[in-house]
Design goal:
With 302 residues, the chain is α+β, with helices and mostly antiparallel strands. It folds into 2 domains: 6-147 and 292-301, Diaminopimelate Epimerase, Chain A, domain 1 (Roll); 153-282, Diaminopimelate Epimerase, Chain A, domain 1. The chain contains 6 helices and 18 strands. Strand 11, helix 5 (200-208) and strand 12 form a beta-alpha-beta unit. The two termini are 31 Å apart.
Length: 302
């Protein structure tokens, strides 16, 4: 199968002439800029040499559209960690910080790998959250097994005396009622009457720095249209509000399903597009299905 990413393929063919890894950091390396439902993802494939990822200053430069390709998250793809996996990845936000997971980023990595010559449609990727199972569908969309949601406060992490479906959280004199869970990364979900009028910037920033979230948190603002559809805006750690957030879509669907408001399968309507989330409840895994589209490709200076 011919790759739809010719520049990246050409760069890989030249990889045998590249110098040692310590010199590579000062070289230009290929990247793909993609998106999933508008969530901007840069993918750097370094399976051939396992080059270490850039430092935070370099990541911030690359994440800014004034000085780099610009991204919400960068997926740094490395070799498989064992024979059961096809590749591994690490996730970095535009502020230079490393985070645990990115659902739309995983979709983009899987789409890239499946498009390569001899690429498989069923892949297992190594991550800090453990092995991630992915399936590239006939229409080019990708389904990702995001694992079971975590509600135990200490594992999210979230400062609470005991586990609950909802928590009261004080912010600037107001008391918010939120669902809190982890989808491999921490999420706080607020139900609102209208996502367009939600105070996303103020509340997202305040909750992201709240003392009860020692590792920070992604904040979702969810409106339930009906039992199969929700509207969602997400303020992400290290990126601010983004057009879409895969793990945020999962967290919102799980919160609504747990509250008895949603069916097993939900279409999540985000500013940048739509994602589909399926969860049967309990310890069952959450499945995320979304698109992975190529925007551009080129070279970045490290």
């Amino acid at each position: 199968m011919k790759s739809p990413f010719p520049a990246a393929e050409a760069a890989r063919r030249l990889s045998g002439r590249e110098p040692a890894a310590d010199t590579l950091r000062r070289m230009r390396v290929p990247f793909l800029k993609m998106h999933g439902a508008g969530n901007r993802i840069v993918v750097v494939d370094r399976r051939g040499d396992d080059l270490p990822p850039p430092d935070p200053d370099t990541l911030r430069r690359l994440g800014d559209t004034a000085t780099g390709p610009g991204f919400d998250q960068l997926m740094w793809v490395g070799p498989a960690r064992d024979a059961s996996m096809d590749a591994s990845y690490r996730v970095f936000n535009a502020d230079g910080g490393e985070v645990e997971q990115c659902g739309n980023g995983v979709c983009c990595v899987a789409a890239m790998l499946a498009a390569q010559a001899g690429g498989k449609r069923d892949l297992v990727l190594g991550s800090s959250a453990g092995p991630i199972e992915t399936h590239v569908l006939n229409d080019g969309s990708v389904s990702v097994n995001m694992g079971a949601p975590v509600f135990e406060p200490a594992r999210i992490p979230f400062d609470a005396g005991r586990e609950s479906d909802h928590y009261e959280i004080g912010v600037g004199g107001d008391t918010l009622v939120a669902s809190v869970l982890s989808m491999g990364n921490p999420h706080c979900v607020l139900e609102v009457d209208d996502v367009e009028r939600a105070d996303v910037e103020r509340l997202g920033r305040a909750l992201g720095r709240h003392a009860r979230f020692p590792a920070g948190v992604n904040v979702g603002f969810m409106h339930v249209r009906d039992r199969a559809n929700i509207d969602l805006r997400v303020y992400e750690r290290g990126a601010g509000e983004t057009l879409a957030c895969g793990t945020g879509a999962c967290a919102a669907a799980v919160a609504g399903r747990r509250a008895g408001e949603l069916e097993d399968t939900v279409t999540v309507h985000l500013p940048g597009g739509r994602l589909v989330v399926s969860w049967r409840g309990g310890s069952e895994p959450v499945w995320l299905t979304g698109n992975a589209e190529l925007i551009s490709e080129g070279m970045i200076e490290l």
